[in-house]
């Protein structure tokens, strides 16, 4: 059974900064020595997507307490290998972090291009974002049921966007194909903004992507939201059915996002970063920005809690991907 990591209620899941302040007190020397200069956050996706927006907004808040610049460096592509390698090429001193989401866990599990559990140390989860199924507003498909019925009647003709073979979007599409009885063609892009431009430009028929893009493009009449992958309807689009309501019974899924550092980073620095990140994640400017993009704060109580989430996702994704042909 695939664990359900989708957010169900803001009140239930928001864990405030009080959890962060309960972290172990750091030695005085660690507090004074870190950070020794600008802190870099690597984002393995293009600017303008949900991960980039979250990392930049939290980074701005962290600058106030770290008293150092927090620099966001986008390194998309290569099924996240480029961004992971950038982290691994840096010293294990906490000055460089990598913002990951569950797409990294999926590539780790399915393609084994890197090993997050051995090569990195999870620091903190900070947010969760709904995943939606979008088509262009002028699409012939008026509902998810119509889309899947057309795909069954036209094998191999449905082109859907992914962020690369083995990613969480690709994994979910393969599960949907099995459950709904159709076969489509995955088309890979570097990130959400790229896949959205492809959708709007007619290169693909549909895409699973962050709720951010539904909020950006649906009000303008550019896209139609066919389904949400939550266990219940999303309050921002209450008339949109869940995937299960649309007749496709696959486990619900939401994007989670968080930070890791290179393996070997001293524990006291990991704890300092945990405190800085989780306190920044629940400040009013971050909460306001998250709400505007469709996300919500989902802050881990400790680095170990985030480690367990990452490990759990890698495990279920490994099992779920067996026999699904995620190499293409």
């Amino acid at each position: 059974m695939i664990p359900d990591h989708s957010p169900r209620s803001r009140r239930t899941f928001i864990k405030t900064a009080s959890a962060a302040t309960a972290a172990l007190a750091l030695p005085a020397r660690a507090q004074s020595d870190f950070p020794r200069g600008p802190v870099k956050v690597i984002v393995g996706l293009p600017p303008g997507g949900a991960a980039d927006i979250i990392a930049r907004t939290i980074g701005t808040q962290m600058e106030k307490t770290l008293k150092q610049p927090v620099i966001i460096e986008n390194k998309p592509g290569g099924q996240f290998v480029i961004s992971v390698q950038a982290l691994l090429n840096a010293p294990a001193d906490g000055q460089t972090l990598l913002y990951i989401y569950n797409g990294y866990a999926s590539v780790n599990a399915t393609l084994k291009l890197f090993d997050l559990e051995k090569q990195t140390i999870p620091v903190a989860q900070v947010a969760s974002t709904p995943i939606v199924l979008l088509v262009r507003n002028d699409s012939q498909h008026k509902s998810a049921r119509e889309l899947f019925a057309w795909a069954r009647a036209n094998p191999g003709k449905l082109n859907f966007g992914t962020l690369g073979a083995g990613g969480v979007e690709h994994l979910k599409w393969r599960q949907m194909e099995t459950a709904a009885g159709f076969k489509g063609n995955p088309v890979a892009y570097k990130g959400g903004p790229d896949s959205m431009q492809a959708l709007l430009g007619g290169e693909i028929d549909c895409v699973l992507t962050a709720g951010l893009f539904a909020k950006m493009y649906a009000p303008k009449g550019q896209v139609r939201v066919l389904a949400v992958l939550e266990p219940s309807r999303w309050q921002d689009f209450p008339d949109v059915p869940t995937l299960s309501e649309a007749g496709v019974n696959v486990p619900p899924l939401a994007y989670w996002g968080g930070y890791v550092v290179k393996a070997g980073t001293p524990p006291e620095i990991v704890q300092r970063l945990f405190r800085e990140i989780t306190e920044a994640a629940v400040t009013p400017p971050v909460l306001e920005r998250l709400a505007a993009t469709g996300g919500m704060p989902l802050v881990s109580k400790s680095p170990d809690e985030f480690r367990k989430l990452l490990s759990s996702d890698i495990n279920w994704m490994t099992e779920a991907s067996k026999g699904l042909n995620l190499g293409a």
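The first strand starts at residue 39 and ends at 43. The chain has a mean pLDDT of 90.
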